[in-house]
Here is the input.
Amino acid sequence: MLPKKPSVTIKDIAKRTGYSANTVSHALRDKDDISEATKKKIREIAREMGYVNNALAASLRLGYTNTIAVILGDVSNPHFSIMMKEIEMHARGFGYSSFLLNTNEDEALESAAIKTALQKNVDGIIICPTQKSDRNLEFLRTLNLPFVLIGRRNPIDRYVACNDELGGYLATKALLDAGHRRILLLHAPTYISSSKERLEGYRRAYKEAGIQVPEGLIREVEVTSQDIEDVLSQLDRDGENYTAIFAFSDMLAWNAWSCLLRRGKSVPQDCSLVGFDNIQSRMRFPFDLTSISSHKGKMSVEAVNVLLRQIRGGEDGAGQVVIDTTLAQGCTVAPPQL
Amino acid sequence: MLPKKPSVTIKDIAKRTGYSANTVSHALRDKDDISEATKKKIREIAREMGYVNNALAASLRLGYTNTIAVILGDVSNPHFSIMMKEIEMHARGFGYSSFLLNTNEDEALESAAIKTALQKNVDGIIICPTQKSDRNLEFLRTLNLPFVLIGRRNPIDRYVACNDELGGYLATKALLDAGHRRILLLHAPTYISSSKERLEGYRRAYKEAGIQVPEGLIREVEVTSQDIEDVLSQLDRDGENYTAIFAFSDMLAWNAWSCLLRRGKSVPQDCSLVGFDNIQSRMRFPFDLTSISSHKGKMSVEAVNVLLRQIRGGEDGAGQVVIDTTLAQGCTVAPPQL
Here is the structure.
């Protein structure tokens, strides 16, 4: 499903055709200083090399389409659907329509989604990258097409993310302050930047408190996990006890809560619980999960702004935005039972 | 925000231009049997009459774009976001990309969304209509553009909906069977077909049980309600007591649950609760809400199928599909306290 030869560059085409990179670039951009015959030749070879339908489409864009693509992990997760709603409404206010594309956190689906966006001739892309490898983003970088990462980041690309390290720190500190020492961290794979940074925050809180990190309680789960029963069972078998859980997402926290209930454990009496995303800011539930607010609404609006600045050119503004996280107090943190 | 003169028809243009409806139609469709001069004249007047940018765009479509528009009430509600995910993935499997457009259940935003879809030259529309009036659907009907309603319906248009009457009946019957007599119905405005039909099911269950419907307990709330505290307070002031609640959506049921907890009432000990949508089929919560499953996944897939059959022409198949609802047993129904 990956695009053919995502690394085909102007240079590659120049080498193959014998023309200079400059000539190839002008031919692909349909500039007047290249003869039609040469353009045709270069384009045919470019197409043959797999440059067509992706980069060529981008470089030959017929003006603007006033559309953007929003590529997200799983829009059925309220964390993403709230972002999607905000992005759609904010972008529409500027006259842009939004394609939605799901990746299911799958790299091949993500690659296909990027290709689809290019075929649709979008003006730009907002993407929450799977980050399993850097391949799809590397491909995007070759395209000269504006894009912004949302919720996850790397040092190279433009992004709007929340301060995940701070979020991890605040959640862990809240539990340490309540007296917990053995805090189970249910985090996502660390190739995901937000997961890696939250883990760093978790470690910082322990370090500041002068307490050794319980390494056996750092457990990785899939972002799309439907059931973490197996993870908790493994902890039981490993003889690792815990009095609190800090989960990568509210969805995962609710999931953990339901597993705890099945074991006859109450929250927070028998186990404290902190989530991440603060979905309850938009939905009222019969329980108040303590969570970290990532300020999704603000993130979404900022991502659209950063993208539109790129699309419209001119003042570039800040291209790497980090929004501070805050602790959203709920009723799921209490002192550990003695 | 409503489109200018949504009722402009071929006939109106014929009257104004003095040409026959047939000639106007052929001119707008760029048929060969009309001279270029006549086409130009007719199109200019059509544009002037407000026919351009919407119906003209649809009738003059330059072939297919392999895009559809999905117009939903509020994608941040998991009920809609789960449908959106299923629609997007299923449509993508057939090579179609999906624009997402939110209406926030607002008629003007819905009208703007339809216009945007037309400007984007989509091949078809899946819409959960606001239904406050029939104006936007009437406009859609003049366009000769395939569209399918999802989740709500009327006798005229193609739709894929769940059996809401049956759902209302099953929920109410489950509560009556448990011994409840005073069941609070928190339903949506009855101009929404699904709300009207669920109310009919509620009445049928009472009738079959030979019990008089407690009319004072039928209360209308906005679909997008963030807080139903006011509704419950009004019931208190009205002196209307109840031992169970049947809510229009799971979101509303959770909301009601949290209001009950604030009053020191437990579910189901002090009050039973049944929702609608069975969102828990896709998310694990620390409580099992008894709900009605609308089989959202199946509805979404069917809606795409019905739309694609229209777009691709040929065998029309069933255009009005009703999917049976079922009771999803949770832990929120118990006998009333004596």
In short: The longest helix of chain B spans residues 296-312.
